[in-house]
Amino acid sequence: MQLYNDFFGRFGGRYVAEVLRKPLDELEQSFIAAMSNEGFLSELEYLQKTYIGRPTPLMFAENASNILGGSKIYIKMEGLANTGAHKINNALGQALLAKKMGKSRIIAETGAGQHGVATASVCARLGLDCTVYMGEVDMARQRPNVYLMEMFGAQVVPVSSGSRTLKDAVNEALRDWASSWDTTHYLIGSALGPSPFPDMVREFQSVIGKELVKQIEENVKEDVEALVACVGGGSNSIGFFAPFIEQERPALVGVEAGGRGLGNGEHAARMTGCGVEGIVQGYKSMFLLDSDGQVLPTHSISAGLDYPGIGPQLAHLGETGRVIFTRATDKEALEALRFFARHEGVIFALESAHAGAAAIKLAKEGSPDKAIIVNMSGRGDKDIFITAKIIDGNRWRDFLLSEAGDA
């Protein structure tokens, strides 16, 4: 895979207002130079080890495998990275690059909050000012992450326009960047947006897949038949898949949010029959759009998958057949979360629980001499205000009322 591609087949590119051409050109040149600079790469590797806590483990899910009776399941424990998700890999890489470029301020947007937490954390570590845009709906359902961002010193700006979710936060961040790029870097968290962001995010997240190559050689006895990852914008999946893309196998499986059903506004599945080609927020890819080309509302129990677009490289890989896309519903994700919690002692984030649900289905269909590796891109601490209300409603409500009474 080339370091910088710009287009992936017919997807990708840079469809932005003239005011953003110069900062994107500057970013592209700085990114390409940094990735061949031994000093930058050494500092990044040092921080990956000492600050993020890499490498993250690859765990054999022995109990789950025995219960399912088919292919062995392994879990890449990306949720054990500092701040609880893969998001910090890219946040650290971009923030370090921005600092080398002389920027003093970082802006970001976030849906599930994990990207915002990761960005706020690295800004605190590197001494950069941080502003995070977040839809009001997402702020309400991810309150713990808002608290953490503010603890790291970030200003969290609520976005009240549109559906008050991630796509609206992206629009606000783009407006900010257009007027502040001389001092500010826009730290996009997923492998989408105008180039060079899709290439840059893939490269900084590819540390997941590069570690996995070594861990398979050292620890996996079975033949690896599939890698499974959830796909919102696609940052964890493209990093997980990166070293394997130009091979014929294993199968690469992307799992989208099936939500509550097939109707408009009930899911966020772009690649499983619902998306159309379009240009939104500076890049060409597959989006959920109406007949007038307007972005449709989406739904997912996981805020991180609740987005109408997908990274252009993943759209291309889906179109060419290298990545197989499927979907998991809200209910299936919750069932997978409970299954791995009960039998393996790990709690998936709701986003990666979608991948867990698909891995369970695939494992049942396979044989014990095969292996499936699922990326637990984040851990589920952040989702407790969603999952506890559904799984343990009355006792959770009583607890919250008690805590509020003590406040």
UniProtKB/TrEMBL annotation:
EC number(s) recorded for this UniProt protein: 4.2.1.20
Pathway assigned in UniProt: Amino-acid biosynthesis; L-tryptophan biosynthesis; L-tryptophan from chorismate: step 5/5
GO molecular function (one): tryptophan synthase activity
UniProt domain Tryptophan synthase beta chain-like PALP: residue ranges: 52-378
Assigned keywords, A-Z: Amino-acid biosynthesis, Aromatic amino acid biosynthesis, Lyase, Pyridoxal phosphate, Tryptophan biosynthesis
Enzyme class: lyase
InterPro entries to which the protein is assigned, alphabetical: Trp_synth_b_CS, Trp_synth_beta, Trp_synth_beta/beta-like, TrpB-like_PALP, TrpB-like_PALP_sf
Residue numbers carrying N6-(pyridoxal phosphate)lysine: 87
Signal peptide location: none
Similarity annotation: Belongs to the TrpB family.
Role, per record: The beta subunit is responsible for the synthesis of L-tryptophan from indole and L-serine.
Oligomer status and interactors: Tetramer of two alpha and two beta chains.
NCBIfam families with a match to the protein in the record: trpB (TIGR00263)
Protein name: Tryptophan synthase beta chain
Organism: Rarispira pelagica
